[in-house]
Amino acid sequence: MSHMLCIGYGRFPPNNITELWVMLCSMTIGATFYAVFIGIMSTLIMSIDSSGRLYKEKLNQVGEYMRYRKLPLQIRRRVQDYYEHRYHHKLFDEDAILTELSYPLREEIQIHNARSLLTSVPFFSNTSEEFISLCVTLLKFEVFLPGDVVFKRGSKGDRMYFIVRGIVDILTTDGFVATSLTDGSHFGEISLMREDGRRTATCRAATMLDLYSLNTSDFRTVLDAFPGMQSVLSEIAVERLQRLDKYSDEARLYQVKRDYKTEKITSNDMENTDINKKRLGAMKIPTLTKGFIRSMAPTLGVATLNESETTTSSELPSIDEGETGVGCSDWTSVVPEGHDETTADIQTEMEGKESRE
Question: Which residues pair with 215 in a beta bridge?
């Protein structure tokens, strides 16, 4: 036994040539069986987790590629996060597996895989089983990382999306977050229904995002098979465009209020007059002439204005009445209660500071 395990000669070493040959054959047979045993056990262990092995091999290949291309560390981490979230340390050739199956069996599996989508998306709750079956067979699973732009405004739309898990921010033309969509929502269908096919807004992933996408050709296939769904999607598209325009105006107003509060001059800020003049110029505070204030009085909620409440400024930038927009229409709402601060107050305080210096 000690000979076969290659751990020694046993109790007595070989004393003649015959014993020496027996010992050599025993050690050779033992080493062979030992190597075969190790190989069988290794193969058995690897076969238990074949998908995990494929995932590790894929990740190693991707790592070598990123090192070869000398990608930044931040991008490497994002790529690794994508693979971990996308495959959960398991890698399958799902398309090849489903292709080998019969159509009824493949459809049953796809419906099972998309059960979280069907239960969370209200869009599918009022549709027929035939419509759901057709859509599920055409959907493709996708993953986006936080901060990824799903698509940009003005780009060519080639698919619509259904959210399984995660949050998507819908951005206006000015870059404001108009609204956020979460589990069960769908977006991107507007560009598929427009003649030019352009995106009307920018969509950005706020969290890890699991989506199912439906490309343009498959979208047309669904509408051809179920013409009644086009009117439903058209109504949703019109409603969303109206909401997007509304949110754009509200977002601009909010930004003006926030900039005004951030840039508001205090007594400590008056230490540097030149800097504060530049800050006032960046704020684009309008010249409050009597005609301008009277024209804006109904919007500002001011009943009467006296002559003493108007002023002009040669140093502060002026805005013509035709340039008044969201920022000016709600200017008084950002001024704290009990303090009627106008450009005249700010300019007087600045001039007093200059005279004292």
Answer: 159
